[in-house]
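User: For a benchmark we're assembling, each entry needs the component sequences followed by a predicted structure for the full assembly. Here are entry 17's components. Please fill in the structure.
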Amino acid sequence: MAMNTEKNSYTVIFAAVMVVIVGSLLAFLASGLRPRIDENERFEKQQNILYAMGVNQNEDEGSVNFIPTDIVEEEFAKYIKKQYVVLGTETQEREEAYLIDMKKQLNIIKNGDEAELPLFIGEKDGKEYYIIPMYGKGLWDAIWGFISLDKDMLVQGVVFDHKGETPGLGANIKLRYFMDDFTGESVLDGSRISGISVVKGNNDPLNNNKEDNEVDALAGATITGNGVTAMIKETLKLYKPYLETIRSN
Amino acid sequence: MALLSKKDANLILDPLADNNPITIQVLGICSALAITAELKASVVMALSVLFVLGVGNVVISLLRNVIPSKIRIIVQLIVVATLVIVVDQVLKAFAYELSKTLAVFVGLIITNCIIMGRFEAFALGNGPWKSFLDGIGNALGYGVILIIVGFFRELLGSGTLFGIPVLGDPIRKTGLYATGYENNGFMIIPPAALIVVGIIIWVQRSRNKALIEEA
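Assistant: Structure for entry 17:
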């Protein structure tokens, strides 16, 4: 062999060259693909918002079917009438409010500053939907989603997603049989805006009782379920001043 | 096989049975336990490892004479991590749905001991073609076990396969559930995977006594 690969100088040079090559390869790739990835993420958000207000291609039973990405932008413009940021009881119209990152806003609130909370008003068949983004913690990592309410504070639909919940257990929060259970539940506890709890053993696996603010939990995913409960409660708490103004109208 | 010499063919066939990375070498157990609660995840994981191990083994094999031995583990780690990130980014741009399914596994692929194990034990000492076959063989051996375990865990734990109900509806009590059958909730938690893997090891060793280690 021509080179002595055991020398320290060789090791250092090899490491440096490797870092430069790998680093530039990844940087090149990441910046080259960025626009496409951003677009995919934007479509996904639009699909989720529409899904929560019941604009999707679901059949009676089976899997979750979003509006296809090639028409999602038109559909989004058609159904979503207004995009707001909510400041207490006030709202401010904001173009592309759906691109606001809920996680960042929650951090702002944690630091005691005033955040801009996005809210979307959708309209379908003459009925108004108030769609709110949510962000919380599951067992392993972040969970998020959207919840849509009507002005009587009845849930019209939810959509959840997660970063790293266990496949087959917590990851099932994004399946139809879990998400469908929320539809029709009220977020009111008495007359107070509260939330919906994911509970074990409520003896109502088919979720026929829509009055109890409860949906049946997923087997083997207690912590993810608790995360969903907490996420809904915390989010509604933030939007409560504004939601109260809708109710009184 | 005309395409491959007998020796080359053994590189692929050995890890499928008598030198299986999971049941014989006992590598890659962590991911086998973590993600086999459903069949779909097992298949995705098996394919990802197939790609990373196939390509990674070739890359390491090509570099084997220039890698300084003092930092070889780090170099191997960089190769795996780079491959995984490249795949992840490309999927995010061109197959977004698939990338979301895969996102959970990215970390698990990088830390999969089979990958580091094959780099260290095989690719560093053999040519690219042999290393490629070795990588494919070991990934298939790993995948086979993952799919067997995923099949039983999803079937017995959730009554579904690939998310499709095959035993009836457990809540409305149709199909097999009408007879009083219940899903075994134990099957969907990780310890069940350990037991299924254990049973596979038992079956395999009782069929081939040569595999039993001296106590």
